[in-house]
Design goal:
GO terms for molecular function: iron ion binding; iron-sulfur cluster binding. This protein has 94 residues and is an alpha+beta fold. The protein contains three helices and six strands, in the order H-E-E-H-E-E-H-E-E. It is 21% helix and 19% strand. It has a two-stranded antiparallel ribbon. The longest helix has 10 residues. The two termini are 13 Å apart. Bound molecules: iron/sulfur cluster.
Length: 94
């Protein structure tokens, strides 16, 4: 049976800690080009480019893969940490 990536992602569950996102963009250090790359790189589609050319992150569906953390680590543009215990992604493998 063939599944689309969206169907596989839908198998996961997320518990969001409201008001305390674990991935944030530091607007004072934002490297727009690195962040724009994340729009295409993030496997969960957490990054979106706005009409005015800025990039926003909504980490509610984040899989905690760390890709954005690695790509942007030299820029200092991201504040990244694992969610508080009991929150974040719950992977399902069935
Ligand atoms: S850690 Fe991975 S899934 Fe989460 S926002 Fe970064 S690139 Fe996307």
């Amino acid at each position: 049976m063939t599944m689309k990536i969206e169907e596989k992602l839908y198998q996961n569950r997320y518990r969001v800690f409201e008001g305390e996102p674990h991935v944030c963009i530091d607007p004072t250090k934002a490297d727009v080009e690195a962040l724009k790359a994340m729009v295409n790189i993030c496997p969960a589609g957490c990054y979106v480019e706005t009409e005015d050319g800025k990039v926003e992150v909504v980490p509610d569906g984040c899989m905690e893969c760390g890709t954005c953390r690695i790509v942007c680590q030299d820029t200092g543009a991201l504040q990244w940490g694992y969610p508080r215990g009991g929150y974040g992604v719950l992977f399902k493998f069935g």
